[in-house]
Specification:
By secondary structure, the protein is α/β, with parallel strands linked by helices. It contains 24 helices and 16 strands. Helix 1 runs antiparallel to helix 2 and helix 8 runs antiparallel to helix 9. The structure holds 2'-deoxyguanosine-5'-triphosphate, calcium ion (CA) (2 copies) and zinc ion.
Length: 575
């Protein structure tokens, strides 16, 4: 088991102990053990081999043994017994956004509740509102949290959905009966979250294909098994549909099941206006049986038949793409291989896992000309944020890497500086001025009113040292709601102050939301696709950020980190 997985288990143990109402010192021991692992500078395997794990600050004797056991992939009966000792409904309640272990324990003790249904009942009956420490407001929060949990559990991050879908797609394509296969639906449109997977295959011999599909590993339940359509649910909760169509219908079916509904409605009315009727089976003349074409090879031809330029799936949301395709005004969307570097990355100086040199080497291996490192600032103490002295030390280390001659990839020195509650920045101006660039982010006081939060962020944007705004709303998709903020005002302030708003590319974030970008870029706002990498493997998330940029109609001109190093340097020196 690797360090990340072990750290997750230590955290889980702390939470379960809290649920059980265990000794606070014991709980804290697991929490600090988790933190110590997360910020470990040395290789865990080496520490264990050299019997030095117990010397690490924050890791006591009891934890040392458990970490060694987990690292060796051996069973940990303590953990299994702990899990078994807790009512399952209470563990399930942890999935309710905004409800922590301490509160669940209190509710369980006072009201004897054991399931989420019980919890709903005592919230609605007024019993919770009367408990000390809870009020009408927290009841409201719990009830909306229960609703969110239901909605969230039905959807999946695009990244996870794609990881499930790709091997299935390869498997389909390798079957002898399959002529062509594609993933359709929201996955193909690169939506940030996906409800279910949709596969379309072309074949005149569907049965063996369907048998293969319902026999996939990790299938929990087959909910449909026919000749044209089969549906199933995996153990992960993810659901998938497969449709097998005759080869001459493939392009029409692919287009139809890619959607979105709004796009399909616009396409059908476009077809009608030209005297056709369009469906998942084909394109007919008027309402007659006769097909307008026998068969077509690809979607380009379908759009051409309707006198439209090709609309890439990312833009098929019914947001004006047909009009733009008719007028020949579709944008030339940014692509991942146009990126020349990335700016928002962490090293082990704060909560990242790799050194400056490792991050630089990995960026160079990806073909990038530059990277920016931006560790946390001191207010993010839980992430081991840097104070002024450590920032200045980091600047020197980065300069040394740049002059070492070891890398062609240039390193820009930056910081992810906390925006404090009042909108001031977490570090002294004279320190910020020494950096090449500054990302400013909110990591605390999420519950301000929209007015206060907007003013707070705008004040940070107006700071002369600010280069970029990090993750505008703080949302974690399917986990944490965005904080309230007035997008329009923040966007206008960013443009007025020459501040870039990042596209945080982490699959949980994708923040600022793609829905705002077309208009914002039209007004002149720049973005930077920032992977928020906490290790070298985090760089790959730029792909998710690029998906979101494309959904937001962005071209390379609007994406700062597609610029050449000379142009980037000139921009950073000027601002
Ligand atoms: P999802 O799965 O909720 O993330 O979203 P989609 O877009 O993948 O939706 P899904 O799986 O229900 O259906 C895939 C596409 O098929 C959808 O975008 C449009 C088309 N489609 C499916 N059912 C209907 C329908 O009843 N009416 C219309 N107009 N289109 C449909
Ligand atoms: Ca779907
Ligand atoms: Ca579906
Ligand atoms: Zn951050």
């Amino acid at each position: 088991m690797d360090k990340g997985a072990i750290s997750d288990i230590l955290g889980e143990i702390a939470t379960l102990l809290e649920l059980r109402g265990d000794n606070p010192f014991k709980i804290r021991a697991y929490q600090s053990g988790q933190r110590a692992l997360d910020t470990l500078d040395e290789d865990l395997g080496t520490l264990i081999d050299e019997k030095r794990l117990g010397d690490v600050k924050g890791i006591g004797k009891a934890l040392t043994d458990k970490i060694i056991t987990l690292h060796a992939d051996e069973p940990l009966p303590f953990f299994d017994e702990l899990k078994a000792s807790i009512v399952p409904g209470l563990i399930e309640m942890l999935e309710i956004p905004g409800l922590g272990a301490k509160k669940i324990k209190k509710l369980h003790d006072a009201l004897k509740i054991a399931t989420i249904d019980d919890l709903t009942r005592v919230c609605e009956s007024g019993e919770v509102a009367e408990l000390a420490g809870f009020g009408a407001k927290s009841v409201e929060k719990i009830l909306s949290g229960i609703k969110n949990r239901e909605a969230y559990s039905k959807r999946h991050l695009w990244w996870a959905a794609n990881e499930t879908a790709q091997p299935i797609l390869e498997g389909l394509r390798s079957l002898p009966q399959v002529e062509r296969a594609e993933a359709a639906g929201s996955l193909r449109r690169k939506m940030e979250t996906v409800g279910d997977l949709d596969f379309i295959a072309a074949s005149n011999d569907p049965e063996p294909i369907m048998d293969w599909f319902v026999g996939l590993p990790d299938v929990q339940e087959v909910t449909g098994h026919g000749k044209t359509k089969s549906s199933l649910r995996f153990e992960s909760g993810m659901q998938a549909d497969l449709r097998v169509v005759p080869p001459e219908q493939f392009v029409f079916a692919l287009h139809h099941f890619t959607g979105s509904k709004d796009h399909n409605v616009a396409m059908r009315s476009r077809a009608l206006s030209l005297g056709y009727s369009l469906s998942e089976w084909g394109l007919r003349k008027d309402d007659r049986e006769e097909m307008a074409v026998d068969s077509i090879d690809d979607e380009e031809q379908l759009f051409k038949l309707l006198n439209l330029h090709f609309v890439t799936p990312e833009l098929r949301e019914g947001l004006g793409e047909i009009e733009a395709a008719e007028a020949g005004e579709l944008p030339e969307l940014v692509e991942v291989d146009q990126l020349k570097g990335v700016f928002h990355n962490h090293t082990h100086a704060s909560d990242g896992e790799n050194s400056i040199e490792e991050m630089t080497q990995a960026a160079q291996d990806l073909g990038w000309d530059y990277i920016g490192l931006a560790d946390h600032s001191k207010a993010s103490f839980q992430a081991n944020g840097l104070d002024e002295a450590r920032v200045e030390e980091q600047i020197k280390k980065i300069a040394a890497v740049n002059t070492s001659g070891k890398f062609d990839c240039h390193v820009f020195s930056g910081i992810e500086c906390d925006i404090l509650k009042d909108g001031s920045l977490d570090l002294a101006d004279e320190t910020l001025e020494k950096l090449d660039y500054v990302v400013v982010s909110v990591h605390s006081s999420f519950t301000l009113s929209e007015e206060e939060m907007t003013a707070r962020i705008i004040r940070a944007i107006e700071h002369p040292c600010t280069t970029m705004l990090g993750h505008l709303t703080g949302r974690l998709l399917l986990k944490r709601e965005p904080y309230k903020v007035n997008f329009e005002k923040v966007i206008d302030a960013a443009i007025a102050n020459n501040v870039i708003i990042e596209m945080n590319a982490h699959p949980w974030r994708l923040d600022m939301d793609w829905r705002h970008w077309r208009k914002a870029a039209g007004k002149g706002l720049l973005t930077s696709v920032n992977p928020d990498a906490h290790s070298v493997s985090g760089y790959k998330y730029v792909a998710a950020g690029i998906n979101a940029c494309r959904k937001g109609w962005l071209t390379a001109d609007s994406v700062f980190n597609t610029w050449s190093i000379e142009k980037v340097r000139a921009y950073l020196e000027k601002s």
